[in-house]
Automatic annotation (TrEMBL):
Keywords assigned by UniProt, alphabetized: Membrane, Transmembrane, Transmembrane helix
Domain of life where this protein originates: Eukaryota
Membrane topology: Multi-pass membrane protein
Entry's localization field: Membrane
CC terms in the record's Gene Ontology section: membrane
UniProt organism field: Lupinus luteus (European yellow lupine)
Protein name: Uncharacterized protein
Pfam family, one: Keratin_assoc
């Protein structure tokens, strides 16, 4: 079973919970970290999502090619 196929609730809910946990952890260290975490997180999440989607599509195309050959 692939982790991306497991249902852990909605994507937005997961991202929101992760963001809140990160902001709380950052607030323990320093107030400036909260701001930078909040500002840079959407961009980093977008990049990671794009990389994951690219890797997933490559894996799916390989699987389809192997199924055709079999």
């Amino acid at each position: 079973m692939h982790l991306s196929t497991t249902d852990y609730g909605s994507y937005l809910q997961n991202v929101t919970v992760a963001e809140v946990v990160a902001l709380i952890a950052d607030s323990i260290v320093h107030r400036v970290y909260i701001t930078t975490c909040f500002l840079f997180s959407p961009g980093l999440l977008y990049d990671v999502n794009k990389i994951f989607a690219s890797a997933l599509s490559t894996t799916e195309s390989r699987t389809k090619k192997q199924d055709v050959r079999a």
